[in-house]
Amino acid sequence: MLKVNKIKLSGFRGIPNTAEINFCEGSKEPRSFALYGPNSSGKTSIVDGLEWFLSRDSKIEWLQRDEAKEKSYPHQAAEESFVEIDFYDTDKKLSGLKKEYNHKAKTSPIESYKTGFEQVYKMFVISPHLRYMEIIDFVYQSTGYQKYEQLADWMGFRDEFTFQDKIAKGVHQNLRAYEKENQGRVETFEQQLKQLTGGITAGDDEVLNFCNGIIKQHKIEECKSIKRVWEKIPEISKKKIASSVGVTIDKLTRVETAISASVLKEDLHKKIDEFSKKIGEFRKNEALVAQIDVIGLYTKALEILTGQTVTDTKCPVCGNEWNRDELIKHIKDELELLKKTKEEKKQLEHEALTLKTIVNGEITAVRSLTERYKEAQEIIAEIKFEDATEYLKTLTDTADSLSKIVSDVSVQIQLDSAGIEKINKEKNATIEQIKSHKTKIQPSPEDTKLSEDIEKLTQTKTSWESLEEARMKQRFAEEQINAFYALKDEVIKTIQDNIKVRFDEISDRIGKYFKILRNDKEIKDIKIVLNEERGRAAGRSAEIELNYYDISVRPAYKVLSESLLNSLGLAVYFTCVKQFNETCKFIVLDDIMNSLDIDKRDTLLDLIEQEFFDYQIILFTHDEHWFQKIKRRFPSWITKKIKSWDYNTGPKIDSVFTTQEELVEYLKDSTKTKIAGQLLSGHIEDRLNELCEDLWAAVRHRYSKNEPATMEELFDALAKRLKEKIATHPLVEKVAEAKKFAPILRNFVSHSRTTSISPEEVRKTAEEWFALEAELRCGKCNHFVEYRRDKDTIECQCGEKKLTKPETK
Amino acid sequence: MSSELIKKHLGELKSQKNFDEGFIDLLADSNDNNEDGSTTADRIVELVEKRYVESKQNKT
User: Fold this and answer.
1) Between A305 and A172, the higher pLDDT residue
2) How high is the ipTM of this complex?
3) pLDDT beyond 90 at A681
4) Assigned CATH for A1-128+581-656
5) What gap in Å lies between CA A71 and CA A80, rounded to an integer?
6) Residue ranges covered by each domain of chain A
7) Which of B31, B34, B36 sits opposite A170 (nearest CB)?
8) Is A481 within 8 Å of B1 when comparing Cβ atoms?
9) Is the pTM of this model over 0.80?
10) Mutate to test the interface with B, among A484, A498, A502 (most CBs of B within 10 A)
């Protein structure tokens, strides 16, 4: 079992000097711990330090973006930055470990004892720290694929996820490109053959008819198969005059036929143009594209904002002033846009890769054409092929640009239609030059015809054989790739089956935890399911399915409210901790109660109390009310508060007193009577509200939140409710009598008469109130009494404290 | 990190001899060495090309 005795941070994030938290204060073994601090008081720096320390890659996830990353980890004014943890390990394998920031190699911190760190990393599957935004991300901002990825980290199948992802994206896409390349080669040779034979298809029958038509003219018997035709070529060649003119004619004819048969992609410039337009459209959102890497920053901004209570604030990213609700919506919209832009970028990268393969094919074709031109030039010096050379250069530049165009905004791409037009013109002109040269050297028409026919047959043979070869290779590659796919499917199926088993294993517990967090009888049979059918990420996508009013719903967000979804996210996280972290018995929770409605925050404490009583909880919160509840419900926890924070000194952590203890302190100083009165007034009002709610006392409904129930109304409602349920119990009278405190306490909020209240009056009021409070609270479970509808009783959670009607004599 | 589950399963598939052994080895390497997808794909294509050349040589 692994817990934390002590954590020490120095020069890390917002902590310039050494800050230390001792979890063994007042005991031999580490205790749970709650730290209260307002927003921006340094709590997150402590969680960042823990995450960095516990991360095998030494990374803080929310800071993983270009401008932040590792360089944002150390405090700028600190000379050394480190996190040191002293572990409590029942197996006695681990004790103190220190991770020090390495300024020379930012991604490789100095670990005090490598083997020790390796042991720590192996101690947990799901990272033992949870931030509020992780819940929000999981339930709202993630697609099925992103949920699956998050679960991979939470449930320990990251390696399998990486493998699946690699096969689906990298391997599959590249093999598809290879198959297309093979297909493209076949199509090119088919086109070439059709061009040579003038046929509609490149089928064997058409090729055979074309060849038989030639050999017939030279009084040679027609053939029944193509291969037989090729055997006849030497026979025809024998008829050729073996003169130097004949050789030249022969050579020129070969070159001429090859040039005629060359196939270039006429529509390539259109494809380039279409892609260029897409890139242009994509770049219009220049600001968004540039911000893809700051998705994490927006996420953090949302985290900070949802924790704030002020109504007007400035966007930490764009700097504009916004109303809080509008800003949250603005950031959510921006996040959505950025994620969409990132997807578009990926799609464009894939298209650029495909297009580059096509351009490379065209480069090969033009290069081959220029080779033929060079051969012709050896005989006819006047032949020039500047357009082909120019086009080749343009194509080479285009291929180069395609490699960079998506990520580099300065790269432009353009392929003028004039290029292919010029090259075709040049091609025709060259053919004409060759023809005219052949006429000039005056061979006999029979010689010319014979040479042409031999060359046609030879070229047809070459093209046909190339096509056969390309088809054969395509078939072979297809068989091989299919064999690979069969293997891949089998491996992926095993991974998916294994993950489905894991999902099934945790589903019951998720349901159990969700029930503790939200006692909603209409939500049943919660399951995590692998989405195997739908979308591009089929088999790598997870959704939560549940039964809602006896109807099966998937994904759960279709019917659940924001608050219910948050509870569901928490249930999944806590389930994974319980299920997969067998020996790591500590959890760090950073402001996670933000994800729950105020009236449901107690249920999170119920979950911790019922299911994680043997865990060391290290909890950070900015909600003082909730913090006070924690203090009351878990008296064995260490509780501290951050008194202040500034850049040069960091957080100042101080001990925490109960309200009662704080009052005593304030009342020692007569100048602090007002503060004491305000503290007591706030405390009694909070307690009354809580008691009224838990006891189901009817308080007059208010349409506006700005007009809360008065203290007198709360006292009346509570007394009336107690009278209904426990009639003549002495507590009913005591509560009714306590209403007398109301006018005194009211003075502390209506400033004019504050001075007329003496410290003694406040002390007396406090004593009487806390005595009454003690009678309403159980000394065993520390819960106030509440109304139990199932039993129609008033009792505490453990049942030890019960308020009943006194027996009548 | 490589996946133990995948490693074990590929080992089993190899002994069953129902799947292409060359590809099994290739996937095992990809898993062990944390190769990225395009490197693995390049190695698959390389193997297919090599086999094609061999198959042609065998025919002749």
Assistant:
1) A172
2) 0.97
3) no
4) 3.40.50.300
5) 13
6) 1-128+581-656, 171-262+453-479, 659-803
7) B36
8) no
9) no
10) A484
